[in-house]
Predict the 3D structure of the following.
Amino acid sequence: MKELIKLETALLAKEKGFKTKTVTTKFTNDYLLGGKNVMINETCISLWMCELQKWLREVHNINVFVVACYIGEDKHRYSYYITNPLDTDSDGSEALTYEEALADALDECLQIVPETVA
């Protein structure tokens, strides 16, 4: 399975206060943070990314949109657009898959999330 989510992304999400809400995403989160004792698949990674995307939207008012960019003859790439209350909206480079574009966007979003207050 291709690694869509890097360890650094999972660590940064945890540092910023992201907590998983379902058993599936908890196991995935544990795996991403180095707990290699569980088997996960691409569906688990996708669910984790969706939960992180929802957390960014609901807690930090950061919205991520992934869109298909058609480049002709049934070929396309995916790109993302981020809106946030800090007015640092941005768009990302093209990726071959929706999941790659979303992973790139989530990485970028976590960079603008403020540090959590203990």
In short: The mean pLDDT is 83.
